[in-house]
């Protein structure tokens, strides 16, 4: 199964969206990258670092700015009809989702050096460390449990 298909299934599981949002907003993690690490069942250190570097670049240049626009559009704007603002917000939300998919496709292409068989929590911990300041183990463990 492709990473994107797996991610859509994973995101539908109870608790996954909430923990992903917490990891993103409270701990600066990129959830597309973390989910890739679980899907890949472990990647060697060089692949983790290369994927983290690619993810950080995409996150800073594309995902964070698009996400900021989407969040800004939540609040009413003077002289802009709510329906028009909400319609634009939905368009930006679709662009954000597409940007996440583009990143996941790039990460999937980097997955030729999969070790395979690594438990979800270990994969999340390794990926979180490679990303930068690691997220707390208890939050990563909640995501691992939610992913099943």
UniProtKB/TrEMBL annotation:
Protein name, per record: Uncharacterized protein (TIGR02444 family)
Lineage, opening ranks: Bacteria, Pseudomonadati, Pseudomonadota, Alphaproteobacteria, Caulobacterales
InterPro entries, per database record: CHP02444 (IPR012659)
């Amino acid at each position: 199964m492709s990473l994107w298909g797996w991610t859509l299934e994973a995101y539908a599981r109870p608790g996954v969206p909430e923990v992903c949002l917490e990891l993103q907003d409270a701990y600066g993690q990129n959830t597309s990258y973390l989910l890739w690490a679980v899907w890949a069942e472990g990647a060697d250190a060089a692949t983790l670092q290369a994927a983290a570097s690619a993810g950080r670049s995409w996150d800073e240049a594309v995902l964070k700015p698009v996400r900021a626009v989407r969040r800004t559009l939540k609040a009413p704007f003077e002289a802009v009809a709510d329906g028009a603002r909400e319609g634009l917000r939905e368009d930006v939300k679709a662009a954000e989702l597409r940007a996440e998919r583009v990143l996941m496709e790039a990460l999937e292409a980097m997955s030729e050096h999969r070790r395979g068989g690594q438990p979800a929590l270990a994969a999340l911990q390794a990926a979180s460390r490679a990303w930068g300041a690691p997220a707390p183990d208890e939050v990563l463990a909640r995501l691992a449990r939610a992913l099943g």
